[in-house]
Amino acid sequence: NEIKVFAPATIANLNCGFDLLGLCLDGIGDEMIFRKSSEKGLQITKISGANLPYEVENNVAGVAALALLNEVDIDFGIEMEIHKKLKLGSGIGSSSASAAGAVFGINELLGKPFTKKELVNFAMKGEVVASGSEHADNVAPCLLGGFTLVTGYNPLEVIRIDAPKDLFAVVLHPHIEVKTSDSRAVLKPEVSLKNAITQTGNLGGFVAGLYTSDYDLISRSLKDVLVEPYRKHLIPGFDKVKNAALENGALGSGISGAGPSIFALCKQKENAQKVAIAMEKAFSDTKISYDVHISEI
Ligand code: HSE
């Protein structure tokens, strides 16, 4: 038998929650197929949509899958097909979709021995291949859906937070590649106490806003003083696009994950459509091609 998996795109960080907050997007993601085989071990039998290694140990999906398979004893092999629709280095969790899709699909094939939260742990191991560090802010929303908050990494603890009604995400994806490892290399390992307080207050405010459907609080909290100042130069037109989103009524806007995608959160579909048009117009000055996606949360 065969298992087909859809692995959705995600927005990590959401301004105030670097490496902690994530959001699952709707209708945009990779496809993966899994089969049992008589030949033991894990094999990647097909890759489309991206130039990725077939060697399991060098492949994000392969490494995540092996982390899971090391914990089980099975007398058959597994074949995995990876059909990438999400561009690598896009900032909407392309590598995480591969890692999360791999562990989700294999878990289904094995009759679900692991919980979704356990799968997040395995998926994170694959993330290291792409970014050089273990973080769960893309793999967690990809596996759990909705908003997710990592409350600790040692041991990993993740909670899922239901979104308030009428929330929409707009993502503008410039067609340039920003490697997560490069985007992490520009960050400063130390932050000031003042900025840490501002960022922590905003993360608390954002989470409180989600739980109470307080859109004004969500909006005031969607700020990033720790990461955006260092990363925004990697993204052509960033300030213009963000300002266009805010001027047109978005609740907040910022870098999606490690970039180059730029996201905006909006209340109601009509506003998301208006914001998407304004972001496109602002970005078109760069002459770089792009695509835009609106997602209901
Ligand atoms: N939190 C991660 C980062 C997400 O911003 O580097 C991208 O993998």
UniProtKB/TrEMBL annotation:
GO terms for cellular component: cytoplasm. InterPro entries: GHMP_kinase_C_dom, GHMP_kinase_C_sf, GHMP_kinase_N_dom, Homoserine_kinase, Ribosomal_Su5_D2-typ_SF, Ribsml_uS5_D2-typ_fold_subgr. Pfam families: GHMP_kinases_C, GHMP_kinases_N. Keywords: Amino-acid biosynthesis, ATP-binding, Cytoplasm, Kinase, Nucleotide-binding, Threonine biosynthesis, Transferase. It catalyses: L-homoserine + ATP = O-phospho-L-homoserine + ADP + H(+). Residues 63-146 form the GHMP kinase N-terminal domain. GO terms for biological process: threonine biosynthetic process. It comes from the Bacteria. The keyword Amino-acid biosynthesis applies. Pathway: Amino-acid biosynthesis; L-threonine biosynthesis; L-threonine from L-aspartate: step 4/5. Residues 208-284 form the GHMP kinase C-terminal domain. It is found in: Cytoplasm. Its EC number is 2.7.1.39. Its main location: cytoplasm. Gene3D superfamilies: 3.30.230.10, GHMP kinase, C-terminal domain. GO terms for molecular function: ATP binding; homoserine kinase activity. Belongs to the GHMP kinase family. Homoserine kinase subfamily. Catalyzes the ATP-dependent phosphorylation of L-homoserine to L-homoserine phosphate. NCBIfam families: PRK01212.1-4, thrB. PANTHER family: HOMOSERINE KINASE, HOMOSERINE/4-DIPHOSPHOCYTIDYL-2-C-METHYL-D-ERYTHRITOL KINASE. This is Homoserine kinase. The gene is thrB.
